[in-house]
Specification:
This protein has 136 residues and is an alpha+beta fold. The protein has helices at 10-59, 63-71, 79-83, and strands spanning 77-78, 96-103, 108-119, 122-132. The longest helix is centred in the first third of the chain and has 50 residues, at 10-59. The radius of gyration is 27 Å and the shape is rod-shaped. 15% of the residues are buried.
């Protein structure tokens, strides 16, 4: 009686290895893309928190002084100013905060724009707009 030991041929093994490499490369690309997306969303969350922090500082300022202080650049900050007192926040890469008056009068329109480098070569920004009014 003949006993045949059947196994995989070399071509079958190469085909299986190629499929495995292709699937693993796809999973690796997906994992790297998820890491980059997570980093971008974290940066957007930090930028939004910084803009909200500036909005809260503006809200705590006497209404009659807000427009003047904005026009003087009191809330226009670069990364070094963001990280120093009185803010003591962790700045994003090349972060800048620009605050402008979008509408004069009462209510006063305010726009806070945060700009940063998300990754080398990718510049991003986030903007918050609000109206504040003087009620007496």
């Amino acid at each position: 009686m003949k006993s045949y030991c059947r196994g995989f041929t070399l071509s079958e093994l190469l085909l299986a290895a190629a499929i495995l490499v292709f699937v693993l490369a796809g999973l690796l690309a997906l994992f790297i893309n998820c890491l980059l997306l997570n980093e971008a969303n974290r940066n957007l969350t930090v930028a939004t928190a910084h803009a909200q922090y500036i909005m809260e500082q503006i809200k705590d300022t006497d209404f009659s002084q807000v427009e003047t202080k904005i026009n003087l650049g009191d809330w226009d900050l670069d990364a070094s100013e963001i990280e120093s007192a009185p803010y003591n926040l962790t700045a994003l890469s090349n972060e800048n905060i620009d605050t402008i008056v979008s509408q004069s009068g009462n209510p006063l329109g305010i726009s806070v724009t945060v700009q940063w480098d998300d990754r080398p070569g990718r510049f991003r920004s986030a903007q918050l707009d609000t109206l504040i009014a003087n009620y007496q």
